[in-house]
Specification:
Order of helices and strands: HHHHHEHEEHEHHHEHEHHEEHEHEEEE
Number of strands: 13
CATH architecture of the largest domain: 3-Layer(aba) Sandwich
Strand content: 15-25%
Family: Belongs to the RecA family. RAD51 subfamily.
Subcellular location: Nucleus
Number of domains: 2
Distance between the termini: 60 Å
GO molecular function: ATP binding; ATP-dependent DNA damage sensor activity; four-way junction DNA binding
Keywords: ATP-binding, DNA damage, DNA recombination, DNA repair, DNA-binding, Nucleotide-binding, Nucleus
Protein name: DNA repair protein XRCC3
CATH topology of the largest domain: Rossmann fold
CATH class of the largest domain: Alpha Beta
Length: about 350
């Protein structure tokens, strides 16, 4: 066996075999914490593995960038792994849903439906992959408003309506409430502590594959004055660095809900879709940290069905490396978000 070449403790070798790690390159593409989670080894044992693997690689041909990319093909954004939204129309727009292993921003005015989508994703992530989920839970971090527990419970009770194509036995077998972990952070210090201390525990145990922050702009807007932009940008970079670390290390989807600001010169900002008169808050310092930017907006008019009515809304792709700039109409019903005939 390949791991016998490293002359490690037999217990360590057996753990590597159980984790189905088949090459030295695979070990080098996995972080230390991920290797601990996959193998169940201690930190010192993982360090032995990494040192021995690096030494073994030095005795062989150097690894090319292409080989590393192929070795990590089942990780992150390159793998094409997506978290579905639970709405076929919007999943089609996003080519399957939110990309795993990267940061997605969702911005829009109040009442556009941003929190509704965050809640829907917190349930969607719990489904198996064949139904658009990741068979795991969600960490929902609230920075301004209390967590909408009543709305979450309503969405849970209506899952069989939203997902009529899913076997009822599967829906009944998921304990949705037990797999949504809620954090409230009132300032940047507590937010950073959550991301660097408490969140990694849930992620390392495989309990969470989605992190939602609702909203990212709230704390940065209230803690800094206009002339403190340099310190604010520094804190933004620290915050985004923590998010990138979590998304890459644990291969999770990260959704940052953002507020918007008015645009006075539409041609000058270039940060949102052309159909919008607003742009996401926090400016270029934050825009450069996200991989996918989505925007929601309310439209004129309503749609009705049975005894329900909803304002028309639209989800648009502002930028994404794998998506065209496009949009779809949707409405918010009792059971959740559903696509509607696009009025545009």
């Amino acid at each position: 066996m390949i791991w016998d070449q490293l002359q490690l403790n037999p217990t360590i070798t057996a753990a590597l075999q159980r984790a189905q790690l088949k090459s030295f390159r695979e070990v080098l593409c996995v972080s230390g914490l991920d290797l601990q989670r996959l193998t169940g080894l201690s930190q010192s044992e993982v360090q032995q593995v990494l040192v021995a693997t690096a030494a073994a690689c030095r005795r062989h041909r150097p690894i090319t960038a292409l080989q590393l990319q192929q070795a990590e093909g089942h990780h992150g954004f390159q793998s094409g792994l997506r978290l579905g939204l639970g709405c076929p129309v919007l999943d089609q727009l996003l080519k399957g849903g939110l990309p795993v292993g990267t940061i997605t921003e969702l911005s829009g005015e109040s009442g556009a439906g941003k929190t509704q989508l965050g809640l829907q994703l917190s349930l969607s992530v719990q489904y198996p992959r064949e139904h658009g989920g990741l068979s795991s839970g969600a960490l929902y971090i609230c920075t301004e408003d209390p967590f909408p527990i009543r709305r979450l419970q309503q969405l849970i009770s209506e899952q069989s309506v939203l997902r009529s194509h899913v076997p009822p036995s599967l829906i009944c077998g998921i304990r949705f409430s037990d797999q949504v972990y809620i954090e409230h952070t009132a300032d940047l210090e507590s937010l950073q502590a959550c991301l660097t201390c408490r969140a990694p525990i849930l992620l390392a145990r495989g309990l969470v594959r989605l992190v939602v922050i609702d909203s990212v702009a709230a704390l940065f807007r209230c803690e800094f004055q206009a002339d403190e932009w340099r310190e604010r940008n520094k804190q933004l970079l620290t915050f985004s660095s923590s998010l990138h670390h979590l998304s890459h290390q644990f291969n999770v989807a990260v959704l940052c809900i953002n507020q918007v600001t008015d645009v006075f010169n539409q041609s000058a900002h270039g940060l949102g879709p052309l159909s919008s008169s607003v742009c996401p808050a926090l400016g270029l310092a934050w825009a450069n940290q996200v991989t996918v930017r989505l925007m929601m907006r309310r439209l004129q008019g309503t749609v009705s069905r049975s005894n329900q009515s909803s304002a028309l809304r639209r989800l648009e792709v502002a930028f994404a490396p794998h998506l065209p700039n496009d949009g779809r109409g949707f409405a918010v019903w009792r059971e959740g978000i559903r696509g509607v005939l696009d009025p545009e």
